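Running co-folding for shikimate-3-phosphate.
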Amino acid sequence: MPPNVVLTGFMGTGKTSVGRALAELLGRTFVDTDHLIELRHGSIPDIFARSGEDVFRGYERDTARALAEQEGLVISTGGRLMLDPINAELLGAAGRVFALTAPVHEILKRVLADIEGPPRPLLSGDDPENRIHRLLAERADGYGRFTIIDTQGREPTEIAADIANRLTAEPDRPEQDSDETDPTDSDEVATP
Ligand code: S3P
């Protein structure tokens, strides 16, 4: 079995739709960590409200550990999962990791339009744009350790084809080695 392909990146960068398209293209099984957690523990907003963020992060760790024992998957991860060093070590050792990016205005538009997915507790309340800016600033270095894939103006199928090409061209590329855009260049372009 080939190593897993792991997608990380901020909320609203398209990890789930790209992951689905990539799994279809590669003929692999697709899994989404938020979905797995919801199947076991109930909705994400309920987990945050009932038990707090730390408990949710613990569920993410359990999920990362379980998925790292499998191969051949396309894994879409919750926006912060791969920023936990233990999770990054586990899933990075067993797979190729790509960080999807988009500009802040695009993230905001996608998050507000995403009425099918689970609500994002970290962006609820007043001024989600400001929260996006703040969280992105905190997370930019973390996402920047992975191979950056810009999603702006591109369809999920096109992004999936790009990732598939990179897998073929660089099958053994090590993780923790970002190329292309420096996500700290500008907060408008940087998504991470
Ligand atoms: C989170 C992102 C969400 C979900 C949770 C927390 C984050 O997943 O895991 O609401 O901290 O970035 P998506 O990135 O799939 O929205």
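Result summary
The helical segments are 15-26, 33-41, 44-51, 53-68, 85-93, 104-113, 128-143, 156-169.
Residues 60 and 81 are 6 Å apart (CA to CA).
Job closed.
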